[in-house]
Q: What sequence folds into this?
């Protein structure tokens, strides 16, 4: 079993705001992140897959193909977008890093070949804050 | 021989913005600014490096107290820019496109007013880990 990681990046606007709550409660819970007019981040996404190495190619999976899958199903959907307003798969969800990483897993996992498993997604919201998700 | 020493303070903020020239039609804005023109904004983690050069004080050994520099940046820049929409929330960009270049010039002008004229000042602003600007250009 080998683990392979591909690093991609995107940037986006978002806000943390629960529409079921008052503006005051949102402010109390989410602070500056609730700013009505959005703020934004440079996100870094580490995609780790696992599987056995193919004897003929020496590859776990062609990294160019992995990059293309991430680009089509994740980056093109998120990059230079407003996560709350522009992204169908985040609709009616809180746009926290935790929820975003789970949604990215749903976007990506079905497109990998059967012999390759998605192992871990690591998503940096800032250079100092990241989440990890193992699909559990 | 110059005895000037440069001291640097690194800070960070994040913000939403959009690159858009209101004097142009949508097609021209799209052609020039591409994805950066998204009407619903996008955003960045900005990293700011402020360089202050001067002759170290004989009594303290400091060019300037870094805590004081940090407080100036926090009060006059971060409090105004952090977790904001640069186009909508920050008055400096009411009529100015918030490109990295313009943001760096604005931050320079803000800090220049706060620092004694004996100091040289330079601002470096990272919009992404791979795109950054400097003002004044050296």
A:
């Amino acid at each position: 079993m080998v683990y392979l990681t591909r690093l991609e990046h995107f940037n986006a606007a978002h806000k943390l705001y629960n529409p079921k709550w008052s503006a005051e409660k949102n402010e109390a819970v989410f602070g500056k992140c609730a700013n009505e007019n959005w703020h934004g981040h440079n996100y870094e996404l580490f995609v780790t897959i696992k599987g056995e190495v193919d004897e003929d190619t020496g590859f776990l999976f062609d990294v160019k193909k992995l990059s293309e899958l991430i680009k089509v199903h994740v980056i093109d959907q998120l990059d230079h977008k407003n996560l709350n307003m522009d992204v169908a798969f985040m609709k009616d969800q809180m746009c926290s890093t935790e929820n975003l990483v789970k949604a990215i897993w749903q976007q990506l996992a079905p497109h990998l070949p059967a012999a390759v498993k998605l192992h871990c997604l690591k998503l940096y919201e800032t250079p100092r804050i990241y989440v990890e998700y193992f699909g559990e | 021989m110059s005895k000037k020493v440069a001291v640097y303070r690194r800070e960070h903020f994040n913000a939403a913005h959009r690159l858009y020239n209101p004097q142009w039609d949508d097609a021209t804005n799209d052609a020039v600014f591409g994805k950066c023109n998204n009407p619903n904004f996008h955003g960045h983690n900005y990293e700011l490096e402020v360089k202050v050069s001067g002759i170290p004080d004989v009594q303290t050994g400091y060019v300037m107290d870094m805590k004081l520099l940090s407080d100036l940046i926090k009060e006059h820049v971060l409090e105004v820019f952090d977790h904001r929409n640069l186009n909508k929330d920050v008055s400096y960009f009411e009529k100015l496109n918030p490109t990295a270049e313009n943001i760096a010039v604005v931050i320079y002008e803000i800090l220049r007013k706060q620092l004694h004229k004996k100091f040289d000042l330079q601002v470096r602003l990272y919009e992404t880990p791979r795109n950054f600007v400097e003002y004044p250009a050296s």
The domain at 5-135 of chain B is CATH 3.30.479.10 (Tetrahydropterin Synthase; Chain A). Helices of chain B lie at 26-33, 66-81, 86-89, 100-114. The longest strand of chain B covers residues 5-17. The beta strands of chain B are 5-17, 42-54, 84-85, 120-126, 132-135.
